[in-house]
Amino acid sequence: MTKHPTPVPALLSPVYALLRAGLLSFALLLAPAPLLLAAEGANAPANAPVGTEETKPVEWESWRAGNEVSDLASLQRGARNFMSYCVGCHSLKYLRYQRMAADLEIPGQLLTANLIPPTGDGPRDYITGVLQSADGEAWFGKAPPDLSLITRSKGADYVYRFLKTFYSDPTRQTGSNNLAYDGAAMPAVLSDLEGVKAAVYRDVKTTVDGKIVVEKQFDHFETTAPGNMTPEQFDVFVRDTVNFLDYAGEPAQVARRGMGIWVVLFLLVFTGFAWLLKREYWKEVH
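Below the sequence we write its predicted structure tokens.
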């Protein structure tokens, strides 16, 4: 099938040129952690070939990220994904390159050569987006948000669903829309990986005040142009990206959870000693 990508307005061409030219060179980053091709059955994308009939509506609102922040290989791939597709517009203003490299065990030379954009930033700098806020407001109507705390405010599952529910919409300036966030200003920047999808709706009749009302309800996606990844590969790509954003929201969370076990054990032991001391003090009090 010949690929017919969603048309991009001329106004947005500088953004796509930035994302697809300078930043995609990071795609070969982290060779020790190759992209997993294993399918994640429960959370696999709901792409279907053109003409496929769905007997049951896709329950996209129940999709779960299922990420694990302690998975180092996933975090490394997620860092690669973010620096390849996201940092052109979005920042992580609370995370330094140096901290990320230390936590994710990324060698300094690899960090400098492949992860830090050629904007003059160094390892001690915070991760900031390349796109200027003024340009973002002019091109998209609003400046792309910082993603440092996106998983803490919205949840990892929401971000996962957001990245997987883009579909083509000719009425939108960007040529795309999103089920999780209707009217999203962000274009479908991952369409070259996932492919271009069309949202298929079905008519649902309901009775309101004795009158029959027909409403449009989402049914399933249909792929109109294939991407460079299989649905299983794209699912892993999104999960790794969400996992990295989850880490960025609280880089110390793995250490905190590990320490929390020992803190709870200490409190239990301390409670036992405190109870024995109390019993000794009060044994002669009637």
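Confidence is low (pLDDT under 50) at residues 1-54.
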